[in-house]
Amino acid sequence: MTLNAGAPSWGSRAFLRTLRCDQVARLQLSTHMPVGGSREQVWVAIGLGSNVGDRLAHLRFAIRRLGYVLSESRISGVYESDPVDYLDQPAFLNACCTGRTRLSPHQLLYELQDAERAAGRRRGGPRFGPRELDLDLLLYGDLVLETEHLILPHPRMRERAFVLVPLAEVAADWTVAAMRDCEAATVAELAAAVEVAGIERTEYEL
Predict the structure, then answer these.
(1) Which residue, 168, 103, 165, 161, is CA-closest to 137?
(2) HSE (side-chain half, CA atoms, 13 Å) at 158
(3) Least confident of 15-29, 69-83, 85-99, 158-172
(4) Which of 194, 170, 144 is nearest to 47 (CA)?
(5) Burial class (CB in 10 A: 0-12, 13-18, 19+), 179
(6) Which residues participate in catalysis according to the annotation?
(7) Are strands 71-75 and 145-146 parallel, antiparallel or unpaired?
(8) Nearest alpha-carbon partner for 84 in 44, 49, 39
């Protein structure tokens, strides 16, 4: 977009008011620029998984992509886990990552889905089925959110050993907020209570 002399400066509030809502959304996603100025950094937790192709390469690709949107990252070990819910598929490699971001929850979700697509994942097929890369936004600070596209904390993380066990390595004291019928509890407490059969730590590193 070319601005005329006397036009509002790029990225200013006045500039944003000249755009349609869909243009603002695309501008935010492409530049990581929140509306109305800078956003405080927030700690987030992300779950990683892969069971198609070179699983470890897919996880390492995800960590590189996350490096563009997260700072002060902490990365767990890599675990191999049996599939859950949809059982007729190969075993997964899983890990968790925490870090700080200035992106909004939905901006970050967009970035995660974009990384999945870049790794070759295509939507469709059986729910919980095989995938080259699966990136789940687990926690966004202490935010509790329920929209059509995003629920925080992640609604199934409390029952997933392949999430809680690696997450406890990097965020054991993080309190997962209460929601629905679940009380608040730390990641360590949730990991201690979950069934851990079918998950094993590997020697792989990210």
Answers:
(1) 103
(2) 16
(3) 15-29
(4) 170
(5) middle
(6) 121, 131, 134, 136
(7) unpaired
(8) 49
